[in-house]
Amino acid sequence: MEFSYRRGDHDGPERWGLIRRDWATCSFGRRQSPIHLSAAAVAGGGYHRRAGRLLLSYRPAAASLVNRGHDIMVRFDGDAGGVVVDGEAYTLRQMHWHSPSEHAVDGRRYDLELHMLHQSETRDGRYAVVAQLFDIGHRRDATLDMLEPYIRRVANKRKGHEVEIDDDVDPRWPVEGSGVYYRCGACRGGRWSSCEKPSTMVQGGTRGRCRRRTAEASPCTTADPMRSPWGVAHVVN
């Protein structure tokens, strides 16, 4: 593993910009994620500017589950659709999770955060990320419920181990019913959107995903430290 999430480590967040030349922005960049989001500032237009509607167009697609060492990733092997942001189209490439959530709303970090990573086909391969926050609750999340058996199969395997998922994965489940998004600048030039309404998951699912950690990542934390907003969050209606 090239990096860890533990502050003070030789490969921890404070030193990410020194690990690789192309990560240098992590040391000095001012448009980075994750950030603290203020519901009042978003409602009042206090973050940068108002943008156009974020258009979601997803479809079920073949996918594989991959142990990346620092997290578990769903890699879409088929056409899962994508999003259009400010008129630019992005194709959905993969989904992964962080625990606790990376972004915070009014100072609160949620139990889990889903990142849906998209890539542009036309502009230097830049990225756009849709994020969904999760609370522990009584209603099961359909996507996590479907993936749980596969997560167990790769959780304690070596980095890079992957399994094919028997059924198509439907990326519409995590974001269904969400209409308002926050967007902020990312560490390496990406575009971020976070669904306004959090979803729920059951407690057992959280424990299952925490088993994916490597020895040096204990306790189970896979979230970046917070950044200052620097006025880069957007509201997309």
From TrEMBL:
GO annotation (BP), single: one-carbon metabolic process
Catalytic activity: hydrogencarbonate + H(+) = CO2 + H2O
Molecular function (Gene Ontology), one example: carbonate dehydratase activity
Catalytic activity, EC: 4.2.1.1
UniProt cofactor(s): Zn(2+)
UniProt domain Alpha-carbonic anhydrase: residue ranges: 1-237
SUPFAM superfamilies: Carbonic anhydrase
InterPro entries, alphabetized: Alpha_CA_prokaryot-like, CA_dom, CA_dom_sf, Carbonic_anhydrase_a-class, Carbonic_anhydrase_a-class_CS
PROSITE patterns: ALPHA_CA_1, ALPHA_CA_2
Enzyme class: lyase
Keywords for this protein: Lyase, Metal-binding, Zinc
Listed PANTHER family: CARBONIC ANHYDRASE
Family membership noted in the UniProt record: Belongs to the alpha-carbonic anhydrase family.
Function comment: Reversible hydration of carbon dioxide.
Name of this protein: Carbonic anhydrase
Organism: Oryza punctata
